Amino acid sequence: MTAQMLQGGYLSVMEAKSRGEFLEEIVRFAHRLGFKYVSAMTVVDESLTRSIFENVHNTPDAYTSSFNDVGQARRDPVMQHCKRDTVPIIWDQNTYVSRGQGELWEHQAHFGYQTGIALALHLPEGRHFFMGVDRDKALPTKPSTMTRIVAELQLFAVHAQDAAFRIFGPQLQKAELPNLTPRELEALRWTMDGKTAWEVGTIMNISERTAVLHLQNAMHKLGCINKHQAVLKAIRFGLMT
After folding, report:
1. CA-angle at 64, arms to 81 and 182, nearest 5°
2. How many C-beta atoms lie closer than 10 Å to residue 15's C-beta?
C-alpha cells in the first residue's frame, strides 16, 4: 500500500456517481487499508425522533440480518460510541466484554467481525456520516502504524461523506413518512414482540386473516417484502419504538 494509492482513493470516491460506484470505492479503499469489510452510513435527522439513512456495506449475506438489526445496534458499544462522539474508536473483543456484550462479539466474530475502527462525522443541519472498517485478525501493535491507519480512514471519510450526501442526500431529504393506520401500527408492534399473525388477531380481537391484511398493508406502504423488515423500517422512520 502506498500513499499515492490511498490518495487516489480519496479522489475516486469523490467522483462516484451511483450507489454501486460508491460501494466499489469504499471497498477498494478498505482492502488497501488492510480490512475485509466496510460500511458507510449516511443519516439525515428529520426530527428529534425520526432519522432517514442509507447504509452501504459489503457485509456477507449470512450476517446481513444481524447487521441490520436495530435492537443489536442499540446494544452495540461501537455504534453507541459513534452516536455521541467524533473521536474514532479502535475496538476488539475487550470493547464488547467490558460493556457486558461479550455474546454480541462472539456472534459477529463468527462472520469475520473481530476487530476494527469506526468513526462518525456529525455535521450541521442534522446530517451524520458513520464509517467503519472491520477484519478477522488482530490490528497492528505498532502505535505509529495504527496512527497512520486511523488518519487515513479519517481523511477518506471526509471525502466519502461529500460523495455520499451528493448521491443519497436528495432521496433521503425527499423521503415521505408512510401513512400507516393505527391498526396497522398496532399489528406491527405485536409482531415486533414476536407474536404470530394468529396471536396478533387474538390480541386485537380480529380474525387472523384481518391481522394478516393489516400487516400486508403496512408492508406495502413501507416498501418491504416481509413483516420483519417492515417492523425495522417502521422503527427507523420513528413510527414506533
Report:
1. 80
2. 9
* φ, ψ at 133 (rounded to 5°): -125, 140
> Which residues have CB under 8 Å from 202's CB, separation 6+?
none
Share of the chain above pLDDT 90, in %: 67
Q: Which three cell numbers stand for residue 158?
A: 471526509
Of 172, 133, 132, the residue nearest 43 (C-alpha): 172
- pLDDT at residue 222 is higher than 80: yes
Query: Which residue, among 20, 241, 18, 35, has the nearest Cα to 156 in the 3D structure?
Result: 35
Model confidence pLDDT, tens digit, residues 30-89: 999 999 999 999 998 876 667 788 999 999 999 988 888 878 888 999 999 999 899 999
Residue 30 contacts by C-beta under 8 Å, 6 or more apart in sequence?
36, 37, 38, 58, 133
- Asked if 15 and 8 count as a contact pair (C-beta separation under 8 A), the reply is no
Q: How far apart are CA 195 and CA 139, in angstroms?
A: 43
| Contact between 27 and 9 (Cβ < 8 Å) | no
| Domains, the chain | 3-173 (3.30.450.80), 182-236 (1.10.10.10)
- The model's pLDDT over 86-134, given as tens digits with 9 standing for 90+, comes to 999 999 999 999 999 999 999 999 999 999 999 999 998 788 999 999 9
- In this structure, how many other beta carbons lie within 10 angstroms of the beta carbon of residue 29? 26
